[in-house]
Amino acid sequence: MATLAPDIALTSAAAARVAAIAARQNKPAILRLAVEGGGCSGFQYRFGFADVPEASDLVVETDGVRLVVDDVSLDLVRGASVDYIESLGGASFKVENPQAASGCGCGTSFSV
Q1: pLDDT tens figures, 11-60
Q2: By C-alpha distance, which of 107, 103, 92, 99 is closest to 73?
């Protein structure tokens, strides 16, 4: 029997960072990922905190933290992984998107 890959994943590092930010802001640990038109490559990722998931959202949970994605954005990030990276250049959430044909240098926009 074949196992299906999850629609989207949230790494433990990203979950820990979301939990820390949410605790400081006294908000639920729910990270929303959306895709909007724009950016230098055509589409851009948008992150924010949600109070509750919407009825049509896909919800995945890692270490008690939920990642929510609306159904329109999900079509553009299906199979992706959201991670949190700290480097000399700074710290940020990073989307590893297998559907992205190209991206920009800053990693916040992509094309399909």
Answers
A1: 999 999 999 999 999 999 999 999 988 766 678 889 999 999 999 999 99
A2: 99
CB 7, CB 59: distance < 8 Å: no
Do 92 and 110 touch, CB atoms closer than 8 A?
A: no
- In three-state form (DSSP H/G/I as H, E/B as E, the rest C), the secondary structure along the chain is CCCCCCCEEECHHHHHHHHHHHHHHCCCCEEEEEEEEECCCEEEEEEEECCCCCCCCEEEEECCEEEEECHHHHHHHCCEEEEEEEECCEEEEEEECCCCCEECCCCCEEEC
